[in-house]
Design goal:
The structure holds two protein chains of two kinds. Helices cover 36% and strands 14% of the residues of chain A. Chain A is an alpha+beta fold. In chain B, the strands form five sheets. In chain B, strands 7-3-2-11-18 form a five-stranded parallel beta sheet, sandwiched between helices. The chains are: A alpha+beta, B alpha/beta. At the A-B interface, helix 1, helix 2 and helix 3 of A face helix 3, helix 4, helix 10, helix 13 and helix 15 of B.
């Protein structure tokens, strides 16, 4: 048996409810939530889908830490202490463990899409594996939004949300910027400049909280955000780049 | 009167997996105002669980591959029950659908010369699966999702409104397809978050709702797979075909209990993994059926050589089609040669270096490490069959994906015909793309062709709303009330044990009796609380769909007295060529009784076009076809070109 303390309520308010519930060998937190639904709280609201860490639906805060409920084994939690489940703190509560994550979908829409190269037809794309490795790492993202939840730029700072895309979508910009065939530059779009000026890259001060909570173990800070900052900085401050751009030696500055 | 949110679109797509998104993209590109309705958040659909890859005969790894070979493999995998025209279109168009994804930003693994890499898979003669490690489904969903977003960005530029021509209604559930004069007029359903009802007027509705696995206890499917589209189609007057064919994927996790059924990708075997019983024996060599004898290795040594020299060796039997492997595992466990937790061993640790395993199978490595404390680079996995996919589905026109109801389309797992009695791995993702595009195109053409749109009927909306709130109203009089979770669990147990991987007449009759009793209990299911994000209520409504679909499966399985692909009858173990000519068609009974909601009919499977039959050796065809179906030697053979044949000839 375990003691589960689960936040129940909606946008108007709520409270922690205590449950005593059976736990079996090998179970994860989501199994316990399902048992609560089937036996004690049939209307307990929770999102989940694949139950295998692949869809990123069952994000919640377990003992205050942003995690996937399907990938948190009961055996990894302190055995004699209650397990506290609360909804993601950075997003408005809808009901119980379900939050309004529309912030993320709004931000996704603001990131300019992949620009296909004009001179290549379908089937003509050629890329080397080592050139796609980095963008592929970022495409492992399952959009659980744990990084968006934990990032201190927005976690307790609602006022920063309009100007800041969050780690997931800054990483998306890095992914497109590192795509070997993305033709953004040819189309007049500077992704580095856009990350810096339109999506708040400068607000990130690389504390790596996002990397720590990533269930896919993507090195968001080291491999996406820092390189993107460096590339943006090159463009912005490197006098040679600036001069090159001015006299037309390289692409737009 | 009940408050109902109302919308109007040209094309409504129900489901946002690979099929639904590909269909929606096409409908929007045809200029239609398009709505996508999905039960989960956008981007979470079950397609993300697809691991191995997308089958398409691009010939990047072995240039001998072509669409004819892919067609042949697909027909063999489905034991020739497939609708030949669907298998043909699928093989022809799959490469274009994959290449198109690259122009939308997909990043597949590469060959040395920079093209899309392709991997081996069960039943495919050549390395054919475009892939991204073992997370191909995620790449597919993300690419399509991002393509939808890019279309929305175009609309924002043009109209100042992202949702001018394509909008995603996420966490909405459809409970009824609405009709006017036998034509589709729209859909009705509820918002999961608020519980509010909505009605959407639309002349074209595409069902892309996936499968039915949640009717079984051990399944790789998520909660969404409650057979919604199958049931919606039946209730709207369309027909389902060949529902007895349910694929049990041979390799699901068996331990710990909470993850039982979760998929272990076939890529493990495609990349060299082998199956062993508790005696350490590679037992698959004992289970090569006669129809496949010439194509599979006879010894371990030959099978092992095949990985590096496919021209001079035959493939190992671990790569037989899924139905064969699942039955073999089932037999080994029954014979007492299983693992401690009732599976068999799947071992890649002794076959590839640890680093290579981590590179090729990263999510399997992660999944076993995190969920089972098993390091697959150092020890074998324990695996066993899990309910994975339904080959049966809505009966559709092969070219247009249209059901028998004008304006109603079905695509992906919810559609029938394409995969015959058993689907090959990798043919699902390509199916979604090929027929997703076709469904979107023809649904758009249908919507555009109408001079007058069918109107929504208020009486149907009122009835649908009453049906949806019924679980809050409780049982009549002093009848006992039921917990929807309990009814669901009993349904899953019944289907798993009585209509599972090996079937017997008596058990299926018992299943039908139980289904009848469960339906009566489901009507007395009562839910607590209110309509705002209430999972108990959602499940109570889903029970209608699962019970209808389960009856179709049990009734069809009882009727088909042969064994073929995903339908194995212990009392009729042989494949029967006469049955190959029969499709079993389910429709809603005109006068439903407590025992039977479904009527079952036999319908002829259309004969395979001659030039496609000639792609096979006559000796092979003899294993599947009746004597009168075989191409006669006297008739001169027509074309064998690689051109796309136009239209059906028979």
């Amino acid at each position: 048996m375990a003691n589960f303390r689960v936040w129940r309520g909606d946008a108007s308010g709520g409270e922690i409810k205590d449950f005593k519930v059976e736990v079996n060998e090998g179970e994860v937190v989501l199994d316990i939530v399902h048992r609560l639904q089937a036996t004690q709280a049939p209307d307990l609201a929770v999102r989940w889908n694949c139950k295998a860490g692949k869809c990123g639906s069952c994000s919640a805060e377990i003992n205050g830490r942003p995690r996937l409920m399907c990938m948190t084994r009961m055996s990894t939690l302190p055995p004699d202490e209650p397990v506290t489940l609360t909804p993601l703190r950075a997003f408005p509560v809808q009901r119980d463990l379900v939050t309004d994550v529309s912030f993320n979908y709004t931000k996704a829409r603001e990131i300019p899409a992949f620009v296909p190269p004009a001179d290549l037809k379908p089937g003509e794309y050629r890329m080397q594996q080592e050139d796609v490795n980095r963008s592929q790492e970022f495409r492992k993202c399952i959009e659980c939004f744990l990084c968006q939840d934990t990032c201190h730029v927005v976690r307790d700072h609602e006022e920063n949300k309009p100007a800041f895309a969050g780690p997931r979508f800054l990483m998306r910009m890095a992914e497109l910027d590192m795509h070997p065939l993305d033709a953004a530059e040819e189309s007049g779009l500077d992704r580095k400049k856009s990350a810096q000026e339109d999506h708040g890259l400068g607000m990130c001060n690389i504390t790596k909280c996002c990397t720590e909570v990533c269930p896919e173990h993507i090195k968001i800070t080291d491999n996406a955000l820092i390189p993107l900052k460096e590339r943006a900085a090159d463009r912005k401050y490197d006098p040679l780049v600036w001069l090159g751009a001015k006299i037309g030696l390289r692409g737009r500055g | 009167m009940t408050e109902v949110e109302s919308h109007s679109y040209d094309v409504v797509v129900v489901g946002a997996g690979g099929a639904g998104l590909r269909a929606a993209i096409e409908a929007r590109e045809q200029g239609m105002r398009t709505a996508i309705i999905c039960k989960s958040l956008f981007g979470k659909a079950h397609t993300v669980m697809a691991e191995g890859g997308i089958a398409a005969s691009m010939g990047n790894v072995n240039s001998d591959d072509n669409w004819q070979t892919h067609f042949r493999d697909t027909m063999r995998g489905g034991k020739f029950l497939n609708h030949w025209r669907m298998a043909e279109l699928h093989a022809l168009e799959a490469p274009d659908r994959v290449w198109e994804l690259e122009t939308w930003g997909a990043l597949f693994d590469r060959t040395k010369d920079g093209r899309i890499s392709q991997r081996n898979f069960g039943g495919h003669e050549y390395p054919r699966l475009a892939h991204v490690g073992d997370r191909t489904g995620l790449e597919l969903i993300r690419t399509l999702q991002q393509k939808v977003v890019s279309l929305q960005q175009e609309d924002f530029k043009e109209f100042g409104d992202h949702e001018a021509r394509i909008r995603v209604f996420q966490e909405y559930t459809v409970t009824r397809v609405l009709k006017a004069d036998e034509r589709v007029s729209g859909v009705f359903g509820y918002q999961r978050e608020s519980g509010r009802f909505f009605a959407m007027e639309a002349p074209s509705v595409i069902l892309a709702t996936g499968g039915i696995g949640k009717s079984f206890k051990v399944t790789s499917n998520s909660w969404e797979y409650t057979g919604d589209g199958h049931a919606l189609a039946l209730l709207a007057g369309a027909t389902l075909m060949n529902m007895e064919f349910v694929q049990f994927h041979p390799t699901g996790m068996v331990w710990p209990p909470s993850v039982k059924g979760i998929l272990v990708t076939e890529s493990v075997r495609g990349d060299g993994g082998v199956l062993r019983n508790s005696d350490g024996k590679r037992f698959m060599f004992d289970y090569i059926p006669d129809v496949f004898k010439e194509k599979y290795a006879e010894s371990e040594a030959e099978g092992d050589r095949w990985y590096t020299d496919q021209a001079n060796n035959r493939r190992p039997p671990e790569l037989l089609p899924r139905d064969e492997v699942a039955r073999a595992i089932n037999s080994e466990v029954k014979a007492g040669r299983g693992t401690p937790h009732g599976g068999v061993y799947l071992d890649v640790s002794t076959r590839l270096p640890a680093e290579e395993i981590r590179r090729r199978l990263p999510s399997m490595h992660h999944q076993f490490m995190e969920l089972a404390d098993v390091d697959i680079t150092a020890e074998p996995m324990e695996v066993g069959p899990t309910c994975h996919y339904v080959m049966g589905g809505v009966e559709v026109d092969p070219d247009t994906a249209s059901s028998s109801v004008p304006g109603l389309y079905a695509v992906g797992e919810v559609a029938g015909g394409m995969h015959g009695s058993n689907r090959l791995g990798g043919n699902s993702l390509s199916d979604l793309l090929v027929f997703g595009r076709r469904a979107g195109l023809h649904a758009a053409l249908h919507a555009a062709s109408l001079t007058e749109r069918p109107a929504l009927d208020q009486a149907q909306i009122t009835a649908a709303a009453a049906e949806a709130v019924a679980p809050f109203e409780g049982a009549e009089g002093d009848e006992p009330v039921e917990n929807p979770y309990t009814v669901h669990q009993e349904l899953q147990r019944s289907m798993n044990t009585l209509v599972g991987i090996i079937r017997r007449e008596g058990e299926m009759r018992e299943a039908l009796e139980r289904l009848s009793a469960l339906r009566e209990r489901a009507e007395r299911a009562v839910v607590e609380g209110h309509r705002q994000f209430n999972p108990g209520w959602h499940l109570a409504l889903d029970l209608r769909n699962m019970l209808l679909v389960s009856e179709c499966i049990a009734r069809s399985a009882l009727e088909r007295t042969e064994s073929r692909g995903g339908h194995t009858r212990e009392d009729h173990p042989a494949m029967d060529s006469a049955w190959r000519k029969v499709n079993l068609i389910c429709s809603l009974a005109e006068k439903p009784t407590p025992e039977a909601q479904i009527t079952l009919q036999h319908k002829a499977n259309p004969p395979i076009r001659t030039d496609l039959l000639e792609l096979f050796e006559t000796d092979e065809l003899k294993k599947y076809l009746t004597a009168d179906e075989l191409p006669s030697a006297e008739v001169p053979t027509p074309r064998t070109t690689t051109d796309a044949p136009t239209g059906a000839e028979q």
